[in-house]
Amino acid sequence: MGGGGGGGGSIEGPRELDQTPTWAVSTVCGVIILISIILELMIHKVGSVFEKKKKKALYEALQKIKNELMVLGFISLLLTFGQNYIASLCVASKYGNAMSFCGPYDGPSGDTKKVKDTDHMQRHLLSLQRRVLAGGAPAECKKGYVPLISLNALHQVHIFIFFLAVFHVIYSAITMMLGRAKIRGWKVWEEEVVNDHEMMDDPSRFRLTHETSFVREHVNTWARNRFSFYVMCFFRQMLRSVRKSDYLTMRHGFISVHLAPGMKFNFQKYIKRSLEDDFKVVVGISPALWAFVMIFLLVDVHGWYVTAVITMVPPVLTLAIGTKLQAIISDMALEIQERHAVIQGMPLVNVSDRHFWFARPALVLHIIHFILFQNAFEITYFFWIWYEFGLRSCFHHHFYLIIIRVALGVGVQFLCSYITLPLYALVTQAYGINDEAIGV
């Protein structure tokens, strides 16, 4: 950057390590090491808290996050070590100029506007500075060939990996906090069961099945037709996903099957532990999800709009799963009504694998895992583009669509973490479907 005084305004190039002051090298290394140690101590402290409180599932989820951060760090290390070799590779121009993120650049008078505005011009100059600071010049390719990828582009990939690591931790924490907040609201119902013997469904009272509050709340004129039945379940997941009668009925069903009569049991804490087991599954990044990242980056081509279609997948799947879980609860109420029997206390419900898609409860958790990962990845991708290229760059040529995509991402994160995942934990664990047996 700028030369020192007395040098006639000369410009100094980047200095090599042997010309750098030792105090500068020592200071930079010391700061990086200090930050790493602090982060390691924080993670260790959180893990110690989980072990002390016997949160085995959360501790295992934390270890998963650490392993995934290590993988991201190893990927970054490979990029750093091999960046000069990667940048020296050349490909034919017809391949090197095809399928770009922002289309071909035709100069100031061309169709694309990515270098027209001042803001992006400044970012473009900063990118050139980064390339110089990286110590590399553009690859020299023979005529008809272009570099596979530039050093500056590799630097931007490094930043993207950093964003993935940071946002993965943030979204994992948000998912768990929202889920626990939802289940914490059920604590009031659990305390009422333990402390109040004059509940809405008196266990000493004999009634017909259709007179129970659980059946009354789920069986109505909408349930007579399967289409209107699913419409009712669709809206119920957003308005009030779990009602008091649902919780009490499922609690009664679990205790009747798995515990001895009169035995004290905190069902709300059990569901909270079940949520932690599910969280341990959805926090991981499997090879299939890494493959999705590669496919997403591959098809994010200027003018294709494939990623806009992919963005619609998480909200559609989230609403479909919520509707299905609500339908399972309502089907239980319909089956109880069809018995036309006299019962004492609350009705005894029974759910099995046949109530789930393809008789596989694990499939629902797999889909939730994919939804949370894709949603987190897309929002991470948005913030990375904002940081590297600006909010109104060529990546966001339809800005209003980007705003809609971000709003959908925030909505899906809330809906899936606060409603769908706790509802899944309740429906499966309430009847003893063991998530630990799921081979995820």
Automatic annotation (TrEMBL):
It comes from the Eukaryota. Its main location: membrane. InterPro entries: Mlo. Keywords: Calmodulin-binding, Membrane, Pathogenesis-related protein, Plant defense, Transmembrane, Transmembrane helix. It is a multi-pass membrane protein. The chain crosses the membrane at residues 23-44, 65-86, 157-178, 279-298, 304-322, 363-387, 399-421. One of its GO terms (biological process) is defense response. GO terms for cellular component: membrane. GO terms for molecular function: calmodulin binding. It is found in: Membrane. May be involved in modulation of pathogen defense and leaf cell death. PANTHER family: MLO-LIKE PROTEIN 1, MLO-LIKE PROTEIN 5-RELATED. The C-terminus contains a calmodulin-binding domain, which binds calmodulin in a calcium-dependent fashion. Belongs to the MLO family. This is MLO-like protein. It comes from Brassica napus (Rape). The gene is BnaC04g44040D.
